[in-house]
Amino acid sequence: MERSVVFAGFGGQGLLFTGQVLARAAIKDGLEVFWIPSYGPEMRGGTASCTVIIGDGPIGSPVVDAFDAAVVMNLPSLRKFASRVAAGGLLVANTSLIGAETSARADVDEMRLACTELAARGGDDKLVSIAALGALVARLGWVTPESVRVALREMASKKRPDVVEADLGVFEAGLEAGRSEVAA
Length: 184
What we know:
CATH superfamily: Pyruvate-ferredoxin oxidoreductase, PFOR, domain III
Radius of gyration: 15 Å
Order of helices and strands: EHEEEHEHEHHHH
Strand content: 25-35%
CATH class: Alpha Beta
CATH architecture: 3-Layer(aba) Sandwich
Oligomer: single chain
Helix content: 40-55%
């Protein structure tokens, strides 16, 4: 098994951190991982993305032609990455910034989430990418929710111990939204 996901949006949305959390969770679950960041020179507001590749054995290449999943947090990212999701893949779209626009692809599973509202419900409306991560984990099951919780505690407590509980609350809100999407 080898799976790939791209997290894409504006710098400052926590995309690189979220990709690192997923990568660390996968390692905790005994999987192999590549984490590849990509961002512009801007500190905040420029484009940012990261690719995470997870495998149950050695990963052959860090190059991804078609992603198994994409988490797009803004309209430019939807337009850039929706076409790169493999048929049958998952596209998580943040409707808080994307609005009603869709990928218009019938061959992918498009999960539309109001990530800002989900993050606010979980405890901090700035943690939008963590809300999307929760939904992704619930929908795909590539890693266990517990490994993500452990990774969040470890990573957030190093730099921002004041937001650990908010990160966990937002992750839970995302998990719940992803599970209800599955049930629907």
